[in-house]
């Protein structure tokens, strides 16, 4: 089967024009965090969810709120607390005395963009209710099942500091996030701009520049981005090296990894590489696309052993070693 890469490239050049508009609109309010904005777009286009980790005050909430305004979508924010119940997230049945019947009151999960703020503060029941919605794209209240609107993007945040009263997310649940993005402090010049804007209140208004229909269409086009078999093999090599490092000449990692990335890792890596190519307005995936997203896709899918912790080796160090050793096509 001959693939017409030029035709695909021309189509993607046309269809991806809105990406720049969306980035520009978000940059009106968000200063500096380019990596986070790019990853939000990858999550949005790849139909995946994002786990953001960073200390408080790094514009995590602001970012998804701004994205919801720039894409004409419904936004809701759930502040996770230790006393939160699943019904507070998905909704519940309420008795209506007039009608002498139960009516369904939908929860904040019924939106296009859901911010699950400090997800690790809520107990396991609430986390599993949210993660079921992420996986199944549907909610069951009583005996009725509701499909969630598309696009549906969950951005969960967790604080790496202040672990008092937090419940760590189980590995199997973390695996459901397409990306785990770690955010750092802004640069000094950027923080000066942020400080001035806050003191004067001189924030620009964010306007809707993209419709939900455009996003749905773009998701279909992303699937058409051409991925060569060599790139597929490269993605699989990266993932398999997390499971069987000794086969890739990485015997030193054998005792540091307790489990490798799941097949969700390979699927997400392929999807994210296609989205990255789309954002860069290219109709085909190159190894650079894979390398650009590999850390965000794999850092939360690798289990590290006690030896690794004792040696201060993180999952990121392991991914970086693998990327440096696995042969690039």
Which characteristics define this entry?
329 residues, alpha/beta, Rossmann fold, Helicase, Ruva Protein, domain 3, 15% strand, globular, ChlI/MoxR_AAA_lid, MoxR family ATPase, CbbQ/NirQ/NorQ/GpvN
Structure described in brief:
Helices cover 46% and strands 15% of the residues.
- Please give the number of β-strands: 11
| CATH level-3 fold name of the largest domain | Rossmann fold
Into how many domains do the coordinates divide?
A: 2
Secondary structure tally, helices: 14
Name of the CATH first level of the largest domain: Alpha Beta
Ranges where pLDDT stays below 50 over 5 or more residues in a row are none
Widest sheet, order of strands: 2-5-8-1-9
Helix/strand order: HHHEHEHEEEHEEEHEHHHEHHEHH
What is the C-alpha radius of gyration, as a whole number of Å?
A: 21 Å
Shape: globular
CATH homologous superfamily classification of the largest domain: P-loop containing nucleotide triphosphate hydrolases
Determine the N-to-C terminus distance.
21 Å
Estimated share of beta-strand residues = 5-15%
Largest sheet: 5 strands, parallel
Specify the helix fraction band: 40-55%
Compute the average pLDDT. Answer: 85
- SSE-based structural type: alpha/beta
């Amino acid at each position: 089967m001959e693939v017409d890469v030029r035709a695909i490239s021309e189509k993607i050049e046309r269809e991806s024009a809105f990406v720049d508009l969306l980035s520009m609109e978000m940059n009106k309010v968000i200063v500096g965090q380019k990596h986070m904005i790019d990853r939000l777009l990858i999550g949005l286009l790849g139909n995946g969810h994002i786990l953001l980790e960073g200390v408080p005050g790094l514009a995590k909430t602001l970012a998804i709120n701004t994205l919801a305004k720039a894409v004409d979508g419904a936004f809701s924010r759930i502040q996770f607390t230790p006393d939160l119940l699943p019904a507070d997230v998905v909704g519940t049945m309420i008795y209506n005395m007039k009608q002498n019947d139960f009516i369904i009151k939908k929860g904040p999960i019924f939106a296009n963009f859901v911010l699950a703020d400090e997800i690790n503060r809520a107990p396991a029941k609430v986390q599993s209710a949210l993660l079921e919605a992420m996986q199944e794209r549907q909610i069951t209240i009583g005996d009725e099942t509701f499909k969630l609107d598309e696009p549906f993007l969950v951005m969960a945040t967790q604080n790496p500091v202040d672990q008092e009263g937090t419940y760590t997310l189980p590995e199997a649940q973390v695996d459901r996030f397409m990306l785990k993005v770690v955010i750092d402090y802004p640069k000094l010049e950027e923080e000066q701009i942020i400080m001035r804007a806050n003191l004067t209140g001189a924030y620009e208004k964010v306007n809707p520049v993209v419709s939900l229909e455009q996003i749905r269409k773009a998701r279909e086009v992303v699937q058409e981005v051409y991925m060569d078999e060599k790139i597929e093999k490269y993605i699989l090599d990266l993932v398999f090296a997390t499971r069987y490092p000794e086969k890739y000449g990485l015997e030193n990692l054998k005792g540091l990894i307790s489990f490798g990335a799941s097949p969700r890792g390979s699927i997400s890596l392929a999807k994210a590489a296609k989205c990255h190519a789309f954002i860069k307005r290219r109709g085909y995936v190159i190894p650079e696309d894979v390398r650009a997203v590999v850390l965000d896709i794999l850092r939360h899918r690798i289990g590290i052993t006690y030896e690794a912790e004792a040696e201060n080796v993180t999952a990121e160090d392991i991914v970086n070693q693998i990327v440096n050793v696995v042969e690039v096509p």
